[in-house]
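Lab notes, practical 5.
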Amino acid sequence: MVLPFPGDIVVTYTALGGAMTAMSQGSLGVAARAPAVKDRSCLELGLVPSAVRGARHWAANLLTQANFDQEIVDAIVLLVSELVTNAIHAVTDPPDQQRPHQVWLAIERSPALVRVEVHDTACVPVPPEAPRRDDEEESGRGLEVIAAIASFWGWSPDSLGKVVWCELAF
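Output from the prediction step:
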């Protein structure tokens, strides 16, 4: 297993349809615009659809325990759901048997900002703005949702693939 950040504390869970690894660190992240943070927690996800549900529950519990307002928790959970879904699709569609893939989620919390980062090993670039979809299409609106809810969002390549991030300021 490759850890996204040196010095992470690692705990592995085997529930929710696959192995998940929780990591916690209290320092700066690696993506562009990374603000000074108070707390940072990470979760490595299995590459299965049920991992999205696990990521939502993990994020909700993390923010609820940190005493965030329910409205902020709900918004972050929706952002997590969209970002993790996109990352799992990026590394599994089509399946690449040439290299192992990973997806992990990081949430940074400070008094006035929550930053969500989803790291994946897919080297597929993300469009610079949310693409418009036809009203009849049943999927493909994740970036539109992120752009509508987040204060800022973006992506950057990293040493293992890419990181897609968003921030919610309050």
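Observations recorded by the TA: The helical segments are 50-65, 70-92, 142-149. The two ends are 35 Å apart (CA to CA).
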